[in-house]
Amino acid sequence: MSQSTVANRYAQAIYELALSNNLLAEVGADLREIKTVLATNEEFMALLTAPKISTDRKKELIAQILTGAQPIVVNMVQFLIEKKRLNELTAVADQYQALSAAAQGTADAKVYSTRELTDGERAEISAAFGKLVGKGQLNITNIIDASLIGGVRVQIGNYIFDSTVASKLEDLKRTLVG
Description:
Layout: H1 5-20, H2 24-40, H3 42-49, H4 55-65, H5 71-82, H6 89-103, E1 106-113, H7 119-132, E2 137-144, E3 152-156, E4 159-162, H8 165-177
Parallel strand pairs: 1-2
Antiparallel strand pairs: 1-3, 3-4
Helix pairs in contact: 1-6, 2-6, 4-5
């Protein structure tokens, strides 16, 4: 979650625009895609932050690259370029996702397990842990971790529910050793 006041303000603004235009899901998908590109392509970010390229040229490049994206997203990225705050884009995307999820009664969850979860297991985890945190549904990201030995660890925001064999063995070790 972003701690940047600037990112929070921009995310709130784009969220309200998307909500008023009934485009929450579309804008969210575009922001996720941009975030993925920025995380995997350092050259793209270097290009957009290069001091030798004019702000107008950078805005033109964004308009050409993001032709399939929602105009709200294109305008926001161009605005961040203009204000020299492009480094906040990932934080804005994260905060937007949090606002959108809260409005829809969902939350993001990381589920650590020793193997890939089936759709049925995902649904059960979503229902059970969603109730614990007051959400109707969880958007689950499954992370494979063989060191858990068995069971699952669920992380939803600041909440961590750990029912792994590894953690139970560690608890037993602490109890026996003292």
